[in-house]
Specification:
Elements lengths: L10 E7 L5 H14 L4 E6 L9 E3 L5 E3 L1 E3 L2 H7 L6 E4 L9 H10 L3 E7 L11 H7 L2 E5 L1 E2 L6 E2 L1 E4 L15 E4 L15
Parallel strand pairs: 1-7, 1-8, 2-5, 2-6, 6-7
Antiparallel strand pairs: 3-4, 9-10, 11-12
Helix pairs in contact: 2-3, 3-4
The chain binds adenosine-5'-diphosphate and zinc ion (ZN).
The site of zinc ion has 8 residues, from loops.
Length: 193
């Protein structure tokens, strides 16, 4: 491993919360600051997320930053350039179970690793591998959206269509932010035939 120019100590930061809670905005904000400080930054997202531009991470408020698509955590590890100091990863919940170990490896090499991802799925269940990442991260930021029903703190992603797939990629029309009182997992249940 090449010796990194700066930051002798690596660590893991996780930004997590519901959809529309500002995870991508916060990730982009941190990565931009690192770029301005002329740190070597590399940004990844999983290939499954074809919501937006092919080669950018994009927030719902249309902030964007160039990124690389990878199919799994092994490919991510292999693609990291030797001199990279800061690594950004969006949509962490769409990665395989090897993501926490990959982040550990990168942090152990002295790099700052920042991962954004959903903490819960559309039924409110912990969304692997984010729980495992939260357990090993040095820093955790929980972001909240605003409940579109009552204006309370939204910790849930409400699916608005009947579909039982855990991964159903989309945004407005398919999902909205809701608080624990207004969240209704039965809304997304398949209608009986
Ligand atoms: P995430 O990555 O957590 O899905 P983004 O960073 O992509 O979130 O988007 C955050 C932006 O989403 C907000 O700045 C706002 O423009 C928009 N937004 C849409 N619905 C809501 C909501 N219910 N509460 C807060 N922000 C919302
Ligand atoms: Zn509410």
């Amino acid at each position: 491993m090449d010796v990194l120019r700066r930051s002798p100590h690596g660590w893991i930061e996780v930004i997590t919360g519901s959809m529309f809670s500002g995870k991508s905005e916060e990730l982009i904000r941190r990565l931009r600051r690192a770029q301005i400080a002329r740190q070597q930054v590399q940004i990844f997202k999983p290939l499954v997320d074809d919501r937006f531009g092919e080669d950018h991470i994009v927030s719902h408020s249309d902030m964007r930053l160039a990124s690389e698509n990878v199919t799994n955590s092994t490919e991510l590890l292999a693609r990291v350039r030797p001199n990279v100091e800061v690594i950004g990863i969006d949509e962490g919940q769409f990665f395989d179970a090897g993501l926490p170990a990959a982040c550990n490896t990168l942090a152990g090499q002295g790099r700052r690793v920042i991962v954004a991802g959903l903490d819960q799925d559309y039924l409110g269940r912990p969304f692997e591998p984010m729980p495992q990442l939260l357990a090993i991260a040095e820093y955790i930021t929980k972001t909240l959206a605003i409940c579109v029903v009552c204006g309370g703190p939204a910790n849930h992603t409400q699916r608005l269509v009947a579909n039982a797939d855990r991964v159903l990629v989309g945004a407005s029309g398919l999902y909205e932010a809701r608080c624990r009182h207004c969240f209704d997992p039965n809304l997304s249940a398949e209608a009986p035939r």
